Amino acid sequence: MDERENRLLLEQWIERRGGNAKITGKKALNLNPLITADESGHRELHLAWWWVHVGNEPATFSAFNARDDKLLSSRVWKTPFREHRALAPATWYVEKGKKFALPGGEAFGIASITTTAYRGDEKMLTYALVTRDAVEAAATVHPRMPLVLPAKLHDDWLDTELTGDGDLLAEALTASEELSRSMVIVVGDDGQGEKYG
């Protein structure tokens, strides 16, 4: 897929969904943008199912988020973390009804892990967002937040030759600290939060 195709796919998704990623339910197929890299490092944009599949079926447990402290030990998370990482592009996220963004409204990448499933003959990418301990404003709303990665770590996170291990996880957590601490609650209808953009 070339850059023009990626842009068109993303523009169509934004127009259709208003830029809102939604968890895929049992009846509604809500596919969301996800960035992976091939063996040569070329980035690819996919529309993926936001709920990890296990054994070609949606997991029977809550599988839209994967805790950072379980990536190395969980039977479900360790292989995707080791071998199949991705980035979910975003400009904001919502937790407990509060919208969080970077102060300037900049785009960021949320660390994700993937599995592959099949719907009939169609190959489909499924994913979970990686979460970390919440800090600063995010911690006032919920104890967890997405693992937001700075651009300097995107190549390593997506590198198919780099095994997901304790070193990569520690590097990701350290690198995410500044961005995570800078997240603000965006002004809502109630006038609470900060303006951005």
Describe this protein's structure.
Its EC number is 3.4.-.-. GO terms for molecular function: lyase activity; peptidase activity; single-stranded DNA binding. There is one protein chain. The protein has five helices and 13 strands. It has a single domain, classed as SOS response associated peptidase-like (hypothetical protein yedk fold). The strands form four sheets. Strands 5, 6, 9, 10, 11 and 12 form a six-stranded mixed sheet that branches. Strands 7-8-13 form a three-stranded antiparallel sheet, with no helix packed on it. Strands 1-2 form a two-stranded antiparallel sheet. The two termini are 31 Å apart. It is an alpha+beta fold. The model has no long low-confidence stretch (mean pLDDT 87). 28% of the residues are buried.
Q: Would you spell out the secondary-structure blueprint of this structure?
A:
Layout: H1 3-17, E1 31-37, E2 43-49, E3 53-54, E4 57-58, E5 65-67, H2 78-83, E6 85-90, E7 93-95, E8 98-101, E9 108-119, E10 122-133, H3 136-139, E11 144-146, E12 148-149, H4 151-158, H5 166-182, E13 184-185
Parallel strand pairs: 5-10
Antiparallel strand pairs: 1-2, 3-4, 6-9, 7-8, 8-13, 9-10, 9-12, 10-11
Enzyme class: hydrolase
Family: Belongs to the SOS response-associated peptidase family.
GO molecular function: lyase activity; peptidase activity; single-stranded DNA binding
